[in-house]
């Protein structure tokens, strides 16, 4: 194979699996933080378990559906532009194969192959699957692995829901006096885990990611709790 290893890190099977995993962890993280902020805020204003359950469940559904819809729209748009680019490429290959062979040769030469080797590689890649070669080398996409927008939407829906369930259960299940400490402790613990894994999956230093992630979650809960307490105290 003549594909440069640089592309493998992004487009390879392992790379795309890690990207999916990282997206799932970040989706769960969103679910944890936004739902925790919501239920802790409501807990600042009321002791009512049914109010907490209603608010948490509404937050879970609203958040997971908005994440799924956003993901669907963004992946569909990306897919549309990738398919349009592939269509242009297909037409060019049909109408001007010589110019396309020259183009592929030059792109490969730019990546460090000698003229002769680049020409030889371009000819072999063109003979095997010209469109695929141009898609990968020129456009940086794999025509067999375009992301399905429904899969992407489902993945965000599920990961957000899994994350959101944690603060929802933590605020609803314990007796009244234990709700806040249990929720805060389990949320901060989970944020250590998601911060650490997303950093590891993205090959970044975990410690700073964990600190930022936990600080972000603590801030979200602190702000909504203060707001909820204020509203509860004034009886709005
Ligand atoms: Zn081309």
UniProtKB/TrEMBL annotation:
Pfam hit, one: VIT1
One GO CC term, this protein: endomembrane system
Gene Ontology molecular function: manganese ion transmembrane transporter activity
Membrane topology reported for the UniProt record: Multi-pass membrane protein
CDD domains: Nodulin-21_like_1 (cd02432)
Keywords linked to the UniProt accession: Membrane, Transmembrane, Transmembrane helix
Membrane-spanning residues: 20-43, 50-69, 152-173, 180-199, 211-233
The keyword Transmembrane helix appears for this protein: yes
Main subcellular localisation: membrane
Protein name: VIT family protein
UniProt keyword Transcription regulation present: no
Cellular compartments annotated: Endomembrane system
GO biological process: intracellular manganese ion homeostasis
